[in-house]
Amino acid sequence: MPPDIRLLILPLPEFALLPFGAFLDKLRFSADDEDYSQQRYCSWTLAGLTFDPVPASSGAVLQVEAIAEQLDMAHYDYLVLFGGRNAMATAELAPRYKALLKRAAKAGVKLVAVDNAAFLLAACGLLDGHDVVVHWRHEAEFRATFPHLKVLRDQLYHIQGGRITCAGGTAAIDLAVELLSRACGRARALKGLADMLVDETRDSRHALRSLEPGVGHGRAVQRALALMRHHLGSPLSIEQLAAELCISRRQLDRQFQASHGMRPKPGGWRCACSKRAGGCSTPATAWRRLPMKWGWGMPATWVNACGGALAVRHCNCAKVPLLLERPHRPPRRFWLLLRCAKHPCPVDPRITLRVDGIGRP
User: Fold this and answer.
1) Cα–Cα distance between 151 and 158 in angstroms, integer?
2) Domains (ranges, CATH) in the chain?
3) Taking the model in full, what pTM does it have?
4) Which end of the chain lies in a sparser environment, N or C, as judged by fewer CB atoms within 10 Å?
5) SS in 3 state form for 210-234?
6) Residue 240 exposed, middle or buried by CB count within 10 Å (0-12, 13-18, 19+)
7) Per-residue pLDDT tens over the stretch 196-240
8) In angstroms, rounded to a whole number, what is the distance separating the alpha carbons of residues 184 and 7?
9) Residue 130 and residue 161 in contact, taking contact as beta carbons nearer than 8 Å
10) Cβ-based neighbours of 59, under 8 Å, separated by 6 or more
């Protein structure tokens, strides 16, 4: 008996392991009875342009089992692409993959783009006339690169005819469940979720709670705070932050003022402090005596020291004295060792923590 659903899976260079593994394991659980892991009800083939191993973004290496150009596309229902770490680098793969992808589309194979693979399909002209879902972090980049395509916001995946796009991450599980439901039935599609420790599947329009740091925060503020946390090492300007969110600086200021009672910059400091400094919510007096004479701006590193919080900037290897003022407690002096990635400092016995840390001499 032939399988109900047949998939050709192509991981692109520097693909993310999380959506790849999540998608593949969901297929595995639904493909057989019990936990035998045989490809009975659904089948898949891991392929590449060559037999060369494909590196993941984490450094792991995947060995493919077939060359995609040598496969008969009539034997597959879906061609699933897992995008690389860099969106534009993925788009630049278009000359290498365009002929294969067009041959698959002509054969009636549905094209599935997970994570940044949407950039590749768009660069090949295979998303024209289709709505697109991309990871929220890359929405602005996708809009700027392909302004003629409509990007759907706040969705995990989108199925439109022969084109399917997915934001990546754990949304790959939800997409796999949906594809399996259509081919194998809902019961078989849900099989194995308990083994994967997944409570329930999510609708394509599910709103991520992880982007909701507090009650009453708008979506733009939620995403801005997430971006601030992500870019602590190389902080974005407020203008860059607004551009990433596809809104104006004035709009971002107004939304921060409404939800936090402050403009984005201090809002980012407090958010970073709560995430990087042990969750402490430190009042403004805690950094009243920050050494601004050194030109410190938006904090790149946050550290927690004896109940206080302080901000530093990432500079070229330097060791500087720092006076930390703590609310209702005497100030204390510390030595702070800053390192740059290109020129790491040697170990200093006077420093207890060298990275993102402080210690007394």
Assistant:
1) 10
2) 5-190 (3.40.50.880), 209-276 (no CATH), 279-361 (no CATH)
3) 0.63
4) N
5) HHCCCCCCCHHHHHHHHHHHHCCCC
6) middle
7) 999 888 988 887 766 654 544 566 777 777 777 666 556 678 888
8) 13
9) yes
10) none
